[in-house]
Write a structure and sequence with these properties.
about 325 residues, alpha/beta, about 15% strand
């Protein structure tokens, strides 16, 4: 069996009913129950009966996406334990997009699920507190390359914060900063030939300089969190590097809040290190689409329910 990687999505992949394809696996609901008890909020009810607007609130989205990723990974491990054709439990590499990085650290044993749930809830609140509602914004720009977007951000900032924050795939870059600056950036992107430029339904401008106050709060909180060396490499967003030193892992999590998510380089690095299959291990297909555009030669699969999980495992065994 060839080398494969597991990846975990962050904010933006949430949806009402997102875990319905796993209702036959008790471990999934049990994982949500565990997280809900920790934060005193019924996360399962929220994804089953909630609204799109409720799920999009950062304070809800972050624990939901972490829990969904861990629940899917636990389902993966449970199926793999009964799968006889090769070792499909442990990927060669792991990575998570933004918040998904925390899920990757849980999956590799670097961070306990209990600590992670409380940590991302704290992170979400710190991010929300850093920028008053309506002050910041985040937008996707399609059809322009990275250098062009960095240049237009510099031009449209006009003394405010405006940065390229998610380097998602060739031709798909996310910008964030002060709302007025983001709106100027959208207008300028359209003038310069962007296929699309639109605001995203997220309540905070992640990964830009406006998040530095939240990052400092996170740094203090992390001092009391136990992190150990991951069992397998986790490529972290800010540096596209896999750290084993807990201090460096914590620092990467802090810097991730105000530095870009370098997803293009992450997938390229996986391919360079011999990974042939990248699996998105959380309901949704956002990362899978990005990964295919970044490295067309990779086999890119998405796990969104039990049948797709089983199919991914069979595909690995047949390589």
């Amino acid at each position: 069996m060839k080398k494969f990687a597991l990846t975990f999505a962050g904010q933006g992949s949430q949806s009402v009913g997102m875990m319905s394809g796993f209702e036959s696996m008790p471990v999934v609901k049990a994982t949500f129950d565990e997280a809900s008890q920790l934060i005193g909020t019924d996360l399962w009810k929220m994804i089953v009966e909630g609204t799109v607007e409720t799920l999009a609130q950062t304070i809800n989205t972050q624990p939901i996406m972490l829990t969904a990723g861990v629940a899917t990974f636990r389902a993966w491990c449970e199926v793999a334990a009964n799968h006889r054709a090769g070792d499909t439990t442990h990927a060669s590499m792991y990575a998570g997009h933004s918040l998904g990085e925390y899920t990757a650290l849980v999956a590799t044993g670097a961070l306990s699920f209990t600590d992670a749930v409380l940590l991302v809830r704290f992170r979400a609140q710190a991010m929300q507190d850093a920028v008053p509602d309506g002050t910041g914004a985040i937008a996707a720009i399609l059809g322009l390359e990275v250098d062009a977007i960095i240049a237009l951000c510099s031009e449209a900032a006009a003394g405010e914060v405006l940065e390229a924050v998610n380097l998602n795939s060739p031709g798909q870059i996310v910008i964030a900063g002060h709302r007025a600056a983001v709106e100027r950036g959208i207008a300028l992107a359209k003038e310069r030939g962007a296929k699309r430029a639109l605001l995203l339904p997220m309540s905070v401008p992640s990964h830009c300089a406006l998040m530095k106050p939240a990052a400092e709060k996170l740094r203090e909180y992390l001092k009391n969190i136990n992190i150990v060396a991951p069992a397998r490499p986790v490529l972290q967003n800010a540096d596209v590097a896999a750290f084993t030193d807990p201090a460096l892992i914590k620092n990467a999590l802090v810097e991730q809040l105000y530095r870009p998510v370098r997803w293009i380089e992450t997938i390229q690095s996986m391919a360079e290190q011999g990974v042939t299959t990248v699996i998105e291990c959380v309901p949704g297909k956002v990362l899978t689409g990005l990964n295919r555009r970044i490295e067309p030669a990779l086999s890119c699969l998405a796990v969104s329910d039990v049948p797709s999980l089983t199919a991914a495992m069979e595909a690995l065994s047949n390589e």
